[in-house]
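Exercise 7. Given the encoded structure of a 751-residue chain, write a plausible sequence.
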């Protein structure tokens, strides 16, 4: 929440913020490096000196190098696969051979090495050579570089040449002899494998001639296996059909013997012969008989039995009964014939499948034996073919190896060319002066920067406006530079009056404007100026702000409420025998104690004699009533309050004021005390709260030059924000800088 002028409202923030919840502070590395430039410079000097001392003491080492080209001389008619022996893998193998113990041992045991200074007093000569030897294969030119690093440059060159010569002797020259031996072994192996190949071919041919049927395949199978497969399939199908026929036959017999199931069996038999509608003619005859009976009954009732028509109908009815009986006898005969035919067919089908199954089973065993014999022959044929193919492959492999070795024997398997013979170097390769000095300077600079960083981390003082605003979450309304030279307290407290055209006066007038528009406003009558601890310069800021406010044609009253260690009466040269403490303790009218400061229309109320209980005097109703009466008489009441942390007076005064201005001293006020002071003011519900940074060092004005200052103090109007000393007092800039080195603080610390 903010006021209409943009000032922070501390009431809600004070309940949510605390010193523990302050945001982390970021570090400007460039600024930190500039602040610690002397530490970095000292580190650079120490690091460079240490590197130089080390260079003077270290034993120089010289590296001698011989360049060797190793190639395999193969004819162009060979395939590309043979040329792969000239790849990097082959060169890396030669690299390891050069570093091998055999090569190094032959050099270390040679008569030449016995008289060398390098091996004097060394028990493990091979280990010394191996530790100083470096063999590299070039990426682009495929040349092997053999280097040896030793304190003696001449011996280093001699030993490198000896190592290369030993490698050529042990591997390049002996390779041809080994090739002859391997070739003899391979020729004997070739003869043995040729015999195996001939024997495998003979066995395969003989077996194929003895079993010609294996050459005929049906669906990738021999004839016997194909027949057995077909017979097995037919046997399985016949078994299923025989089981089905048997089940049907058993069911027919069961239905024929059962009276309840026999009609169903008759229907099945009639369906099988296509006579399912056999009873239709009988039903038609029965319908005719019924019609004749109805007609006879009607005629008899009408004419009597003797009537000719009745007699004729009776004869037709008798004949119909005879036809029905004959029809029934015919149907029964046909049903019996159909039943016998159906049962006979079922039995015949069952017997047929049974006989067929028995016949197939008798053939199955014979065909199984034939298929088994044929399968065994096929497996044997496959084994013979595989043996024959493997014999061909083995024979071809040995033949290819013989061709390769035979060509190597004729043209040479390996040619070693010494492109560059090692010579004694004139300059040492270790240590490198540039690298050592650069590393020493770099490590020294990093060490100095680390010390500067550590110092900055351990330093809890507030160092910039951004840090203050981020930490306290309050607006900074001004930053005032530290005074150069020695100025008394009276002059410091009245800089705006004594030096109105100086940078100091402009800084305080800018602060007045910033406080009015950013914190106080027209509705703010009572403004309290305090600080976290003594010595922050709050009294000087208060007096100059009061003078600047009075110069703005605003009726202003300055009250010195620091009754424990008053300062304002010294600044204005006023008698302090009576004042605020007198009014509060004796309940005297305040108007009798207010004096004129003789600076404009500014009125001043001194603190008065130090009472025994200043906190109790402030914490009564009379002080609050006094402020309410004074608000009616003055446009602005500025109160110089005691520090926040040592005593509770300022908290009582802040609770009765309209706004509070907290003065922080640059390079002195710490984060912990500043946060504690802010929190204490928030706890008493201070209405408005702002920050003023006091005594900013000349070298760090840029860090605190943020806010409403418009850059005063950086050039056109003088050197400092208050306590200005012009050229007439110092002569020239060089004289000012010489006299400014002690940098006496602009604000005299209170004791």
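Solution.
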């Amino acid at each position: 929440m903010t006021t209409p002028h943009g000032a922070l409202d501390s009431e809600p923030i004070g309940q949510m913020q605390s010193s523990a919840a302050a945001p982390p502070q970021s570090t400007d590395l460039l600024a930190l490096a500039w602040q610690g430039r002397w530490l970095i410079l000292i580190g650079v000097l120490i690091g460079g000196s240490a590197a130089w001392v080390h260079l003077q003491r270290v034993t120089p080492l010289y590296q001698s190098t011989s360049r060797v080209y190793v190639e395999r001389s193969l004819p162009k008619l060979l395939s590309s696969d043979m040329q792969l022996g000239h790849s990097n893998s082959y060169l890396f193998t030669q690299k390891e051979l050069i570093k091998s113990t055999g090569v190094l041992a032959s050099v270390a045991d040679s008569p030449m090495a016995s008289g060398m200074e390098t091996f004097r007093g060394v028990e493990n000569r091979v280990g010394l050579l191996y530790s100083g030897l470096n063999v590299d294969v070039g990426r682009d030119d495929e040349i092997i570089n053999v280097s040896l690093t030793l304190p003696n440059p001449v011996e280093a060159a001699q030993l490198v040449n000896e190592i290369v010569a030993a490698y050529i002797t042990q591997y390049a020259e002996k390779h041809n002899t080994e090739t002859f031996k391997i070739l003899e072994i391979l020729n004997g192996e070739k003869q043995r494998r040729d015999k195996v190949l001939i024997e495998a071919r003979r066995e395969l041919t003989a077996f194929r001639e003895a079993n010609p049927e294996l050459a005929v395949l049906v669906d990738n199978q021999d004839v016997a296996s194909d027949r057995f497969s077909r017979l097995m399939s037919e046997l399985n199908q016949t078994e299923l059909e025989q089981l089905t026929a048997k089940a049907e036959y058993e069911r027919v017999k069961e239905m024929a013997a059962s009276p309840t199931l026999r009609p169903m069996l008759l229907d099945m038999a009639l369906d099988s012969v296509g006579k399912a509608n056999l009873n239709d003619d009988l039903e038609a005859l029965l319908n005719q008989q019924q019609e004749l009976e109805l007609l006879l009954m009607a005629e008899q009732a009408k004419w009597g039995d003797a009537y000719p028509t009745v007699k004729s109908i009776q004869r037709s009815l008798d004949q119909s009964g005879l036809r029905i009986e004959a029809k029934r006898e015919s149907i029964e005969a046909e049903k019996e014939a159909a039943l016998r035919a159906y049962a006979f067919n079922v039995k015949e089908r069952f017997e047929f499948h049974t006989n067929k199954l028995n016949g197939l089973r008798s053939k199955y065993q014979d065909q199984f034996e034939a298929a088994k014999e044929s399968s065994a022959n096929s497996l044997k044929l496959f084994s013979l073919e595989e043996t024959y193919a493997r014999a061909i492959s083995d024979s071809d492999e040995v033949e290819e190896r013989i061709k390769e070795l035979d060509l190597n024997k004729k043209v040479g398997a390996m040619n070693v060319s010494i492109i560059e013979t090692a010579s004694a170097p004139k300059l040492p390769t270790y240590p490198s002066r540039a690298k050592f000095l650069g590393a020493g300077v770099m490590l020294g600079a990093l060490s100095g920067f680390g010390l500067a960083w550590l110092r900055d981390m351990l330093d809890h003082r507030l160092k910039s406006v951004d840090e203050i605003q981020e930490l306290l979450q309050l607006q900074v309304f001004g930053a005032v530079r530290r005074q150069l030279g020695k100025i008394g307290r009276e002059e410091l407290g009245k800089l705006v009056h004594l030096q109105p055209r100086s940078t100091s006066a402009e800084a305080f007038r800018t602060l007045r404007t910033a406080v009015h528009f950013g914190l106080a406003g027209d509705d703010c009558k009572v403004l309290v100026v305090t600080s976290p601890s003594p010595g922050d310069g709050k009294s000087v800021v208060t007096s100059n702000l009061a003078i600047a406010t009075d110069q703005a044609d605003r009726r202003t009253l300055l009250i010195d409420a620091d009754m424990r260690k008053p300062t304002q009466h010294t600044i204005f040269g006023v008698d302090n025998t009576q004042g605020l403490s007198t009014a509060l303790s004796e309940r005297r009218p305040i108007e009798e104690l207010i004096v004129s400061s003789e600076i404009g229309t500014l009125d001043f109320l001194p603190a008065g004699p130090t009472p025994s209980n200043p906190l109790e005097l402030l914490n009564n109703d009379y002080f609050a009533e006094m402020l309410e009466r004074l608000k009616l008489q003055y446009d602005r009441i500025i109160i110089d309050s005691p520090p926040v942390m040592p005593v509770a007076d300022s908290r009582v005064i802040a609770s009765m004021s309209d706004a509070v201005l907290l003065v922080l001293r640059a390079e002195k006020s710490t984060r912990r005390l500043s946060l504690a002071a802010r929190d204490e003011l928030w706890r008493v519900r201070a209405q408005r709260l702002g920050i003023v940074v006091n005594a900013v060092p000349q070298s760090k004005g840029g860090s605190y030059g943020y806010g409403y200052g418009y850059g005063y103090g950086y050039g056109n109007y003088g050197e400092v924000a208050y306590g200005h000393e012009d050229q007439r007092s110092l002569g020239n800039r060089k004289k000012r800088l010489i006299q400014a080195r002690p940098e006496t603080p602009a604000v005299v610390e209170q004791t």
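Remark. The longest strand covers residues 62-71. Students should compare their own answers with the one above.
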